[in-house]
Amino acid sequence: RGYLTPDEMGRVTSLQLKQAMEAVGSTEPNAVFPALGTARFSGSDAHQAEGRYFDYGVVPAAFFNKFLAKVLPSQTYQGSRLYLNLMTMNAGDKCVDAAGNAELPSEFPCNANPQHVQHGYSTTVRDTRYDRDDPTREKRFQKWIGPYLELNPNVSHNASERVMTFEGFASMLKHMATEGDQSSEWSLDGPYLEHKGSYIEHYHPSVPQSDAEALYHWAAYLAWSGLWDAFGIANADGSEGMHMTEGDLRTLMLESDLPKGWEVRPLTMESVGFTMIDLRNHSIPTGDAYSAALARNFPLSQYLPSVETEWRYTRNYMNTDTVLGFFKDNIINPMPSPAVVV
Fold first, then answer.
1. Binning pLDDT at 50, 70 and 90, where does residue 54 land?
2. Which of these, 199, 206, 229, lies nearest to 333 by C-alpha position?
3. CB contact set of 124 (below 8 Å; sequence gap of 6+)
4. From what superkingdom does this record's organism come (predicted)?
5. 3-state DSSP call for residue 259?
6. Secondary element (H or E) of residue 13
């Protein structure tokens, strides 16, 4: 829809990412964390191999000085010129040689560290490594999304269209956590979520196993809960909760577009945070560890005045991840040497 316009390399800036999120309804506090946490590469670092920084320019100074100065590490880069390459976020975009070739041919610069922009686990619906065998991505949609769609005339506004309820949403996340792609710096290993030999053990050696098991979920929970809250539809029968339609999920995942008829509405850190907490008790392996950590740290005290609540929720969310060890390590792969093929 034009909210993000990547440059010729496929990149957007941290400020552009924040503004795009706000354009689709996100509050500024809710937009700060993904902008601050993902667009972390300098303009000269085409392969995202030279270092990761934080663009404190996307954070209002008062909030940064009051809440974040003691939380974030000393790495800094003022202004709004840190970048994220939106076109090289899959594992197949990894650099395999010093010449800048990727595992899969691409017109964009290869990424030396795709694990930095991957969730702890994910579906393979939009993973380009599988496009040769499934060019329309329909088979993967049916594998990852289809099993959790149902005809439910009670909640649906269209009795003939399948929908995903919150129970189906949680079941989908369970499937992803145990059988999905695990190419992230936050990934545990295999269907039994082993810590030993995992990517999170390698990239975050300072994080103990119990906290690593919780952090495995932070990115997937944040992204999917944000999707749920942004595009979920109120149940037709007036019951509590929301659902997503098959048509909307197809539009989002297969067409990379906003659902037809969708209108901008507020997307808050408060709502996303409590959706992540609500995923407790849904049998998502190790997921309750993360939801429980949020439940301890995220809610606001009833004794505080109702001002700056979104910024306070953002602070509490970042504090949760900080306590679990989010900022403890910053391991970066350099570009492969001429003699090395990864």
1. confident
2. 199
3. 130, 140, 144, 180, 181
4. Eukaryota
5. coil
6. strand 11-13
